[in-house]
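ugh finaly. both done.
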Amino acid sequence: MSNPALSVVIPLYNRAALIGACLACLPEIEVIVVDDGSRDGALSGC
């Protein structure tokens, strides 16, 4: 991905069960996940 035409920012807080599926359904675009101190290991699904 050299020059993405679209960037998506996803705010994340305690959604470990959902983030993997969310990222899997996105096409080849730039995705920025911002975690706000999740306590459920949400970033491990990224």
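ok and the 2nd:
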Amino acid sequence: SRIKPLDYVIFAYGYEFEKVKNNAWTRRLYLNIYRRAKEIICCSDLVRERLVAFGVSDKKIEVLYPAVDLDRYKPVSLPENYLTRAGLAGRRILLTVGRLVQRKGHDRVFLALPEIVKRFPDVIYCVVGIGQYENALKEKVKQLKLESYVRFMGKLEERELIYLYNACEIFIMPSREIAEGGHIEGFGIVFLEANACKKPVIGGRSGGVKEAIREGETGLLVDPESPRDIADKVISLLKDPAKAGQMGQQGYDWVRKSFSWEGYVKAAYQFLTGKEMV
């Protein structure tokens, strides 16, 4: 007897089908996999739109934004002497968390830093993560003579990461779309993690980032190709702590209301079963 095909659900984040769309064979393969799926859950409206353009029926797609573990990502007091031990005492911290790949925009922050530190010489840019672009980024820092203003933190344990979210003044990740290879930011949960710690965020006006930031409320959007725009937006928050604090609070309220794991599980259950979770 024939084996009955299994039903399966796909969670789509964008880059997995964007990177194959220009190769006829892999495009057909991926499209067949998506079309046979019972349901598809996308992390943003942008990914849903790209998937429909890829050739998948909109009827089987649901957008469910990623959730944040609000029991962990929240405002916490830093351990005694934490900043001193980390070599960050007396510094105003800008933070990026993510893989060290070209689309994340670390290099554009580097180009913006000279203008930023001219106004605020106590700024330091902490880069958390590892990836294939690490050596190139470190070389860029040397070329720009920014060693005193950039700290590569590597991969951190979650507890240390949460401390750093709480220690920073601004979270920034000016992601941009890299057409070659289909590199795109499908959403950007790190913006929500930073908001959950009451921090204002700055992101690139690109990809799904526009759905992870309420511009002017929880953070700011920048032209990810413009170091000038990045510098201006960072400086605007550094010189106005009250505005930055208000954005952090509004981000905190938004994340706690809209991005809990409890809400995500209920929405996913209802989409997949057609029933409300009791």
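summary for the 2nd one i guess: The longest strand covers residues 92-97.
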